[in-house]
Amino acid sequence: MLNFLTVMAAQDISYAPVTLGFKVPLFNEVLTFIIRFFFIIAGLIALLYLLLGALAWITSGGNKESVDKAREKIQAALVGLILIFAVLAVVAIIENVFFPGNTGLGITKPIVFPGLIN
């Protein structure tokens, strides 16, 4: 019986490679996607908040308190949009000035982690 187990354990069993049908993304590609996705979602939320403020202004019926709340919503949304675009502009300038070639912080150029071996 021991001889049989030794023979079974010594056999070389090989399996056909499994094809997934897609390429598993690298970590830096996922991180670049997450950063860009964050800015897209932030912009969409700011635009939605702007629309909600405009709708609140329209439906306020001339009530001073409701108009002031709607104005504050619109101001907050505009400040948010300005901040988003300012951050995007500053990061894009930093990427294009300080990062060589095709490396960056994930906004205009993909993130590339340094490696020890080329």
How many runs of DSSP E, i.e. beta strands?
0
Would you identify the regions where 5 or more consecutive residues have pLDDT less than 50? none
Mean pLDDT: 86
Largest sheet: none
The protein's oligomeric status is single chain
Query: What would you call the structural class?
Result: mainly alpha
So what's the overall shape? elongated
Gap between N and C termini, in Å? 51 Å
Summarize, please.
The chain has 118 residues and is an all-alpha fold. Helices cover 64% and strands 0% of the residues.
How would you describe this structure to a colleague?
The protein is an all-alpha fold and 118 residues long. The chain has a domain at 47-110. It is built from 3 helices and no strands. Helix 2 (27-58) runs antiparallel to helix 3. The two termini are 51 Å apart. The mean pLDDT is 86.
Could you outline the blueprint of secondary structure elements for this entry?
Blueprint: H1 2-10, H2 27-58, H3 64-98
